[in-house]
Amino acid sequence: MGTTDTGHQPDGAGEKQSAPRRRADAERNITAILDAALVCFTEQPQASMTAIARTAGVGRVTLYAHFPSREVLLEAVLDHTITLASAVIDTAAPNEGPAVDALSRLLHISWHVLDRHRRLFEIAQRELDPAVLRQHHDQAMSRVEQLLIRGQQEGAFRTDLPLNWLVTTVYSLLHAAAADVNTGHLKQNTAADVLEATLLPALRPPQATVRRRRRG
Description:
Blueprint: H1 13-43, H2 49-56, H3 60-66, H4 70-89, H5 99-116, H6 118-127, H7 130-136, H8 138-154, H9 163-183, H10 191-203, H11 206-215
Helix pairs in contact: 1-2, 1-4, 1-6, 4-6, 5-8, 5-10, 6-9, 8-9, 9-10
């Protein structure tokens, strides 16, 4: 005797079929929340989670399901922004040409990226632990480290100081420039040139700096 097809799906089949849709919905919600949080943090540093949820077009329950606290959300926005920034920084072609020229390109592009999001980084510096903040920058700063190593091999950058300290110098001055622009102590349109004029002499081998001064 043949079996009769009742048209019913096995238990759990409907759930399996809807799982991809749930994942897609979750990903859309996360993207909307991150985009909204970036806007809110930039325009209104004290923006509440309620305001961010409203801007994202999601409920508070959905927001807290993905990001249980403001700190977690801020870290996620920072990480998302740095990931996007890293792709832009790659356009500086840090592996091409003399290391000094590559660093100059990298500084200018890095500054333009940082300048666009300096309000976000200002909030992050105020609300996140410095070690956590630096950890989020590791991906981007690894490009700086690789470039400094190449410059040392070319004889263009100093080797008498720890490499980590040279990377920290670049990192710190970039953020110091953003802070000074925020407070009006540094003009936005000259910040990249000021950074280059400060960092390149600091990174050159000591004897190269002395020779340049004598020629001047």
